[in-house]
């Protein structure tokens, strides 16, 4: 009797066992496939970014023998810094080109020849001379910055065998470049401008530094405002506020706020901070304020989740030995919730760093060359810079767009790393 | 604290009362507690205590004394309200939003639910040990030192060290942890953690210690150690212990209270209750017929 029942259980389970195992395997494969598809997308994304963006970290330079002619730079010979600063260094570059290609004589051809070099070449010469005036009169072999069209041709981004009408450079110009290449006077060097300068109409002079500083100021403002406010709000709502209709309403609204499209916050910022309070347009301060509005709900929600995750037994233990509610919160609950709060904050900050739509609303799309020195100076932000460059017609901005995205991603990775390290540190303090 | 264990007036009132609770008040609850709910040297007195969780009437008209130098065991089937009653005694129920407590509970004749009673003060005087060991995620030292620190019981570090050491010694843990005071309390074994929690409670020198199933997560050896400890502690404190183990109640307690569905059915000397229960429900529970 019992034997028979045991058999029947065994048989019945056995009959379904095969299907159960098959289901399990199928589910595992499905999960694996989903993960793989995600990974493939990610790999393609990174691959195209790297392939497109990494060349922008190098820039074509041409080796020219430049005579730092005294009568061009400093005709009076007084070495007056103002004179040195305002001299026409670009004409020295032109002279050097004339020297190299003596048989180019017609005006039009000479202009075409001169356009091989960037305006940045003259600027670099100026920097060299103003810091070392004793070089005046000498002839130096210098790697000077080439124009972005030359850069594209040298990097092979623009094919030289296209019909002349389909490319920026003329056949003559290509010939000159090939002549220089044959001399070993064309090379790719580290693109210093990309990391140290602001935006520019000339792609070879455009850089992300002013956008980076703008983003930094903005995130600083966001952090300073939204972290304390968010944590304090979460703590009040979770630990101290009575549960009633008002707090319920506040809670619902905070959750709604987290789902509001970011551009709406931009409009709010425009109306409130700029039109009503009269804060300056295009300033990281206003950007930071707007991003704080956006980040606050994220931090509040994450912080509340972190607070509720603290085991009730710890609260009871604290209250049980006679801790007041505030002591319980500050001595026990908050330290345990801090890692979660920090993670939430950093996720919110990372979102803020990548946000561009609300910044467009408050005028942070301006063309900014100078590096901002305070949160009140006009500036752009990294994602807005990406947007601006992606919109530019020059071929050379394509690789700069990808390169700027790579830099943005690097910052995001850095922030995530910081989040992990901070959490580790806090956790070790138990 | 050197308060009189009871005032002459209260003595007279108690003498006037019968051995059973005030009949008129318990009549509305529809039952009468069997046995004498009073203690010889009462530290805390609960009178006609009712507890509601929303609509749920979890404790019905319970009167019970907690006596000095004795252990009182609260027993009864699961869900009968033992923990609820225990948590009334140090107002831990305040933290539960739906809970409502009525009736009188006094600590040395001070009404603990009165406005002028500060819960922080109350919980320093009525300590609690929980069912699951719940050390703070801090070092062993900081666990024990936490109470004295927040109440300002030690003037300097040396005095604090002394309090920590004596508390750990009395909890029978000192020899095991004296070399690892800076290690996390959460890294100890379950039994050690529970003794650490007891040390944390007695470090504040409370007058009453409430224990809610303190041994339910422990093996027999750790349980025996804690029972020895309870026996030792009763010399100085008034102790209330909730337990599901009849043997444990018989071993450690002098008085036993049997709860059933929110009612205090029977209370009396432990020997009496276990050998000669007067109420049918008590007898059924003790002889293992249900619960
Ligand atoms: N936080 C709470 N909210 C609502 N009802 C509760 C709460 N805690 C306990 N109760 C109810 O009060 C009654 C008594 O519960 P209590 O925890 O006091 O029982 P107990 O005797 O300690 O049981 P056990 O032996 O299982 O621990 C039960 O009906 C329970 O459902
Ligand atoms: Mg219980």
Structure description:
- The complex is a heterodimer of chains A (430) and B (291).
- Chain A folds into 3 domains: 2-54; 55-205, no CATH class; 209-426, MetI-like fold (Orthogonal Bundle), CATH 1.10.3720.
- Chain A is 68% helix and 5% strand.
- Chain A has 18 helices and 3 strands.
- In chain A, helix 10 runs parallel beside helix 13 (284-308), helix 12 crosses helix 13 and helix 17 (382-390) runs antiparallel to helix 18 (396-428).
- The mean pLDDT of chain A is 88.
- The N and C termini of chain B lie far apart (40 Å).
- Chain B has helices at residues 8-16, 23-29, 82-89, 119-125, 140-151, 157-170, 174-177, 190-202, 220-233, 246-252, 270-275, 280-286, and strands spanning 42-53, 56-67, 71-75, 99-107, 110-111, 126-129, 208-212, 238-242, 255-260, 263-269.
- Chain B is globular, with a radius of gyration of 19 Å.
- Chain B has one domain (30-286): Rossmann fold (3-Layer(aba) Sandwich), CATH 3.40.50.
- In chain B, 48% of the residues are buried.
- In chain B, helix 5 packs across helix 6 (157-170), helix 5 (140-151) runs parallel beside helix 8 (190-202) and helix 6 (157-170) crosses helix 8.
- Chain B has a 6-stranded mixed β-sheet, with helices on both faces.
- In chain B, strand 9 (255-260) and strand 10 (263-269) form a beta hairpin.
- Helices cover 37% and strands 23% of the residues of chain B.
- With 291 residues, chain B is an alpha/beta fold.
- Mean pLDDT of chain B is 86; it is low at 1-21.
- The chains are: A mainly alpha (430), B alpha/beta (291).
- The interface between A and B is medium-sized, with 19 and 29 residues.
- Residues 82-83, 212 of chain B line the site of magnesium ion (MG).
């Amino acid at each position: 009797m019992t034997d028979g029942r045991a058999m029947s259980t065994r048989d019945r389970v056995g009959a379904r066992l095969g299907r159960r195992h098959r289901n399990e395997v199928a589910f595992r494969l499905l999960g694996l496939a989903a993960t793989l598809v995600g990974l493939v997308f990610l790999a393609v994304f990174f691959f195209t970014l790297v392939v497109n963006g990494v060349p922008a970290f190098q820039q074509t330079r041409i080796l020219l023998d430049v005579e730092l002619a005294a009568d061009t730079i400093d005709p009076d010979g007084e070495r007056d810094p103002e004179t040195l600063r305002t001299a026409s260094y670009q004409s020295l570059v032109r002279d050097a080109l004339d020297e190299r290609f003596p048989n180019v004589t017609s005006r039009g051809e000479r202009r075409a020849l001169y356009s091989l070099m960037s305006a940045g070449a003259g600027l670099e010469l100026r920097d060299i001379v103003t810091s070392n005036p004793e070089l005046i009169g000498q002839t130096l072999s210098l790697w000077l910055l080439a124009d972005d069209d030359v850069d594209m041709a040298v990097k092979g981004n623009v094919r030289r065998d296209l019909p002349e009408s389909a490319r920026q450079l003329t056949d003559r110009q290509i010939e000159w470049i090939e002549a220089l290449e044959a001399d070993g006077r064309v090379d790719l060097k580290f693109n210093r401008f990309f990391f140290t300068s602001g935006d520019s109409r000339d792609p070879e002079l455009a850089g992300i530094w002013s956008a980076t500083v703008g983003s930094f100021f903005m995130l600083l403002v966001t952090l300073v405002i939204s972290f304390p406010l968010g944590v304090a709000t979460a703590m009040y709502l979770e630990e101290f506020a009575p549960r009633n209709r008002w707090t319920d309403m506040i809670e619902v609204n905070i959750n709604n706020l987290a789902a509001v499209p970011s551009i709406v916050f931009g409009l709010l910022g425009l109306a409130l901070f700029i039109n009503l309070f009269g804060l300056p347009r295009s300033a990281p301060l206003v950007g930071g304020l707007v991003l704080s509005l956006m980040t606050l709900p994220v931090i509040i929600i994450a912080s509340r989740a972190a607070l509720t995750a603290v085991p009730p037994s710890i609260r009871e233990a604290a209250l049980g030995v006679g801790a007041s509610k505030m002591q319980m919160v500050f001595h026990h609950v908050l330290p345990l919730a801090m890692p979660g709060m920090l993670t939430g904050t950093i996720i919110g900050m990372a979102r803020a760093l990548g946000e561009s739509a609300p910044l467009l609303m408050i005028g942070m799309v301006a063309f900014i060359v100078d590096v901002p020195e305070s949160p009140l100076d006009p500036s752009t932000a990294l994602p807005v810079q990406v947007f601006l460059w992606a919109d530019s017609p020059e071929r050379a901005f394509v690789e700069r767009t990808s390169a700027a995205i790579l830099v943005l991603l690097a910052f995001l990775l850095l922030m995530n790393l910081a989040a992990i390290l901070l959490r580790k540190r806090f956790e070790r303090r138990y | 604290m050197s308060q009189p264990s009871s005032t002459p007036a209260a003595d007279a009132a108690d003498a006037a009362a019968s051995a059973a609770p005030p009949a008129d008040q318990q009549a509305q609850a529809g039952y009468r507690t069997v046995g004498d709910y009073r203690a010889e040297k009462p530290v805390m007195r609960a009178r006609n205590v009712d507890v509601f969780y929303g609509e749920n009437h979890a404790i019905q008209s319970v009167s019970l004394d907690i006596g000095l130098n004795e252990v009182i065991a609260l027993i009864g089937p699961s869900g009968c309200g033992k923990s609820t009653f225990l948590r009334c005694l140090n107002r831990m129920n305040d933290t539960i939003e739906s809970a409502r407590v009525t009736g009188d509970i006094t600590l040395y004749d001070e009404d603990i639910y009165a406005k002028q009673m500060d819960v922080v003060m109350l919980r320093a005087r009525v300590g609690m040990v929980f069912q699951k060991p719940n050390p703070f995620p801090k070092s062993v030292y900081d666990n024990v030192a936490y109470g004295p620190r927040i109440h300002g019981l030690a003037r300097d570090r040396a005095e604090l060290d002394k309090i920590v050491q004596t508390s750990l010694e009395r909890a029978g843990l000192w020899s095991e942890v004296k070399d690892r005071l800076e290690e996390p309390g959460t890294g100890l074994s379950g039994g050690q953690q529970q003794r650490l929690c007891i040390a944390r409670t007695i470090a504040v020198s409370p007058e009453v210690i409430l224990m809610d199933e303190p041994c339910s997560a422990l093996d027999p050896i750790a349980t025996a150690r804690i029972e020895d400890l309870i026996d030792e502690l009763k010399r100085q404190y008034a102790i209330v212990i909730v337990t599901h183990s009849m043997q444990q109640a018989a071993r450690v307690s002098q008085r036993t209270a049997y709860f059933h569905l929110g009612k205090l059915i029977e209370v009396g000397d432990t020997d009496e209750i276990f050998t000669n229960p007067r109420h049918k429900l008590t007898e059924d529970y003790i002889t293992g017929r249900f619960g």
